Amino acid sequence: MDLTRLVELNAAYARAIDNEQYEEWPGFFLESCLYKVTTAENVAKGLEAGLIYADSRAMLQDRISALRQANIYERQRYRHIVGLPTVLGTSDGGAAEVETPFLIVRIMRDGKMEVFATGCYRDKVKANGDGSLRFAERIVVCDGSRFDTLVAIPF
């Protein structure tokens, strides 16, 4: 898998979230996909549960609808710092298995900034019908296990 295309995929993904263009977020995934936010501790213990779990693009779209229309949370935004992806291999289904480190700074409405999360994305990436890359799976593995607010915005 071309490293440049993986970097571009991660950059576009982070940009959409950081610019609060949340409606674009589900488009980075295949129709049938898995998105999960979990912790390194859960992964080490083999626990499958996550803070967020969605197994289709439709579920991701529902999450954005809830974020825009139903969830009540303190206004905030993110700024992602995304490292370089490492291709670990290829899955049985032909997806590239990729791991990419991240750091997310949270900016509150009053301007206060703090590190919100660090960790790595564990992805399975495939070419879509038009040749563009999409996530078949994105497991967000956070280094820490405590979040002081509603986890509303995608990671």
Please render the helix and strand layout as text.
Blueprint: H1 3-18, E1 29-39, H2 40-44, E2 52-54, H3 57-69, E3 76-82, E4 86-90, E5 96-108, E6 113-127, E7 133-142
Parallel strand pairs: 1-7
Antiparallel strand pairs: 1-2, 3-5, 4-5, 5-6, 6-7
Verbal overview:
The chain has 155 residues and is of the alpha+beta class. The protein has a single domain (3-142), classed as Nuclear Transport Factor 2, Chain: A (Roll), CATH 3.10.450. It contains three helices and seven strands; from the N terminus they run H-E-H-E-H-E-E-E-E-E. Strands 1, 2, 3, 4, 5, 6 and 7 form a seven-stranded mixed sheet that branches. The longest helix has 16 residues, at 3-18.
